[in-house]
Design a protein that fits this description.
Blueprint (H helix, E strand, L loop, with lengths): L2 E8 L6 H17 L4 E3 L10 H7 L7 H13 L2 E3 L3 E5 L2 E9 L5 E6 L5 E4 L3 E4 L12 E4 L2 E5 L8 H9 L4 E5 L6 H17 L2 E5 L16 E3 L5 E4 L5 E8 L1 H9 L18
Length: about 280
């Protein structure tokens, strides 16, 4: 496999959880019609992005309503499906979780957001995920052929060490379902996506909800896909949009050969260790 067709699905929210799921399924089928082999949904696509709503929309993974619907459509279409994120309940704890389903509908992995979104820019954006959510503590990867892919969620991409850990595990692609805000989005969205791609010589996908000014938390939009040179291959605008792009998997090896910074790291002086 020298190329992979990837779909980034930027979604509007809908009034109910069932309608959110139905909207996602319709776009997943459109992505398959356009030849996508890997389909990626945005952060918190089945729930309002609200600390007051996370608990009301939470479900078990993979036994909940959303998980069953995503597993079924992945098997029906024979695709790899990154299920964006949605609130997960385990016992008394809530997590912001990204599940990944394989082409037989199997749960390949799930990732719980490690770095919770606690930010306070007065008059611009104030949010505190940690008031209701528990942070995850494990990395999550899956493979499509020889391509190994790592998962992070939104705020995680601000921590360069996390993506570097995935690079040490052999990942050539990172996926971050993300709901940035419209203030930090123009400042940092492209910069962070391109930086993580360039630093680690890998593909990076950032997949956002569509922008809806009527919601309590307004997402930035502008989902994008970067290549190992830090170039933006495709970018959405603000509305609901389906992006489909072919990525050339040979680029990872070529970039590492031509600009061998990963081999030149001074492990005799510094190193990064994954603890779990």
């Amino acid at each position: 496999m020298s190329t992979l067709r990837v779909a980034l699905v930027q979604l509007y929210g809908r009034p109910t959880k069932k309608e959110c799921i139905a909207n996602a399924l319709a776009q997943i089928r459109l992505a398959k019609d356009r030849g996508a082999q890997l389909i990626i949904l945005p952060e918190c696509f089945n729930s309002p992005y609200s600390t007051a709503e996370f608990g009301r929309h939470a479900e078990e993974i993979p036994r909940g309503e959303t998980s069953l619907a995503l597993a079924k459509v992945a098997a029906e279409l024979g695709v790899y499906l990154v299920g964006g994120t949605y609130p997960e309940r385990e016992g008394t704890k809530l997590y912001n979780t990204c599940p990944v389903f394989g082409p037989k509908g199997e749960l390949l992995c799930k990732y719980r957001k490690m770095h919770l979104f606690d930010m306070d820019i007065p008059g611009r954006c104030t949010f505190q995920e940690s008031s209701v959510l528990t942070p995850g503590d494990r990395l999550a990867t899956f493979s499509i052929g020889a391509l190994k892919i790592g998962i992070g969620i939104c705020w995680d991409k601000r921590f360069a060490e996390l993506t570097a850990c995935y690079r040490q595990l052999g990942c050539d692609m990172m996926i971050f379902p993300s709901a940035f805000d419209p203030y930090t989005g123009p400042l940092h969205w492209d910069l962070l996506g391109r930086s993580r791609a360039l630093d680690n010589q890998m593909f990076v996908a950032l997949v956002s909800p569509a922008r809806d000014p009527s919601t309590e938390y307004v997402a930035y939009g502008y989902s994008l896909l970067c290549d190992p040179w830090g170039r933006v291959l495709c970018r959405a605008k603000e509305d609901q949009e389906l992006l489909v792009a072919d990525i050339d998997l040979k680029l990872c090896a070529e970039t590492k050969q031509q600009i061998p910074v990963l081999r030149q790291k001074r492990s005799d002086i510094y190193e990064l260790n994954v603890k779990k």
